[in-house]
Amino acid sequence: MGKINDEQIFEAAQTVLMDKGDAGLRMTAIAKILDVSHAALYKHFKNREALVEALINDWLLKIDQPILDQAVRMPVEARIDSLHDWLQTLVQQRQAAFRADPALTQLYVKKISQQSEIMNDELTAFSNKVEYIMGWDTFRQQRGITIMMAFTYFYHPYFMNKWDDNLIFPLFESTWLELSPILEL
Question: Does the pTM of the predicted model rise above 0.85?
Fold first, then answer.
């Protein structure tokens, strides 16, 4: 195949993951799809764990960056509605993305159960956007973190098995109403 790039490696890794699952996700299997030696992959990633982390981070960036980019600070009177709409978009897009790729979602859930930093980075990014949308500047984004933690059930794939409940969006709205005192401070 010649020179390969990270994107090609990620695509091959996803193919292996879909075909063989997490246990079959090996550097040699990825190399075989790319028609390169497995040593060529080690020029990009020092080991399987580094590849998996980069794969997950790339995937999450593709899911989350468009959502993060949609965060806009509106005039004061429109900020609460704007935050509601942004959270609803975040929930819908993340749920759709996680459902669309169950093998990678499962790998991601496994990874975050072993290493909490991935979730902390996401939580920080989302919390910063909540603070931005609302025009808040709280110490360590405490209000933004509070909002995002309250909605974890709706956007975190750990709770994916609950998302088919017919009451998921009424529960979202109920959670939103419970948080209204925080929003109006």
Answer: yes
